[in-house]
Amino acid sequence: MHWQTTRFHIDLSRPRVMGIVNVTPDSFSDGGRHSTTASALAHCERLVEEGADMLDIGGESTRPGATAPEPAEEVARVLPVIEAALHLGVPVSVDTSEPMVMRAALALGVDIVNDVRALRRPDALACVVEHRGVGVCLMHMRGEPATMQAQADYGDVVAEVGDFLVQRAAEVVAAGVAPERIVLDPGIGFAKRPEHNLALLRRQRELVARLSHPLMVGWSRKGTLGLLTGRAATDRVAASVAAALAAVHHGALVVRVHDVAATVDALKVWQAACGD
Ligand code: HH2
């Protein structure tokens, strides 16, 4: 299995770690910690040293209840960081739903567009169709972060998330994006209650079996882990590593994490114990 991106053909024969860089004042676990270009870039360098296989740089907090920044503000936050991160030797992803941000990042040569809204904003799909090589991650969410938890209502969450991802991937392929450029994500914590998130983990193999694209998943520091452990967001490293391992064990090929060093170590042990 591979993920085709602008500059890299990412080998997914072993699970890969995507390191999170939030250039935001308000992200749920690290808001304000990397909100200047210099601090965000230092964080990118640190994550690469820790073994991140790729970086995901975002300028919008999508935590439940968050409101989106103006597009120009989002561009100003992420562009200088992406420009510098493109020299670090690993694939660089932009975490955005905003076509203005996508276009600016694509003009710099960004490798991946990771969109929690699965390219559903007007013009977003056109941006990635125009750039023939860029990788994309399409994630499941309902509504908008400001109001999404009111839509956390499912009969069978695994089936419904699977239906969405299958259909959205087909639409994106039909629009002209080659299948090997697409990775899918169930969207842990996005319009989902803890029992939905846990069903998506416990039954993740059902999802993997239905999808003809690699699965990425982001459990890092999320609220369900706080509920299980009673710990605050910054004290969820062990819980996040355990969730990442469980996700990989159930077939995820990319894990999106804040705590890269701990996850990389854990995956080395998992690979030796359980990998091919
Ligand atoms: N989760 C967040 C943001 N982007 N992208 C994908 N593909 N999958 C995810 O699960 C995902 C994502 C939210 O986490 P974080 O970036 O840490 O927080 P915030 O949105 O508050 O910046």
Topology:
Layout: E1 2-4, E2 9-11, E3 16-22, H1 37-49, E4 54-58, H2 71-85, E5 92-95, H3 99-108, E6 112-115, H4 124-130, E7 135-139, H5 157-174, E8 182-185, H6 194-202, H7 204-210, E9 216-217, H8 223-229, H9 237-249, E10 254-257, H10 260-274
The chain binds 6-hydroxymethylpterin-diphosphate.
Residues 20, 22, 24, 27-29, 58, 61-63, 95, 114, 116, 137, 139, 185, 187-188, 216, 218, 256 line the site of 6-hydroxymethylpterin-diphosphate.
CATH homologous superfamily heading: Dihydropteroate synthase-like
Strand sequence of the main sheet, in spatial order? 8-7-6-5-4-3-10-9
N-to-C order of helices and strands: EEEHEHEHEHEHEHHEHHEH
The fraction of residues assigned to DSSP E strands is 5-15%
**Which CATH class?**
Alpha Beta
Number of helices: 10
Distinct ligand kinds: 6-hydroxymethylpterin-diphosphate
Task: Tell me the count of domains.
Answer: 1
Q: Tell me how many strands there are.
A: 10
* Average of the residue pLDDT scores: 96
Q: Based on helices, strands and strand pairing, what is the structural class?
A: alpha/beta
Low-confidence stretches: none
| CATH architecture type | Alpha-Beta Barrel
Distance between the termini: 14 Å
Radius of gyration, rounded? Answer: 17 Å
User: Helical proportion?
Assistant: 40-55%
Judging from the principal axes of the Cα atoms, what is the shape?
A: globular
Largest sheet: 8 strands, parallel
At CATH level 3, the topology is: TIM Barrel
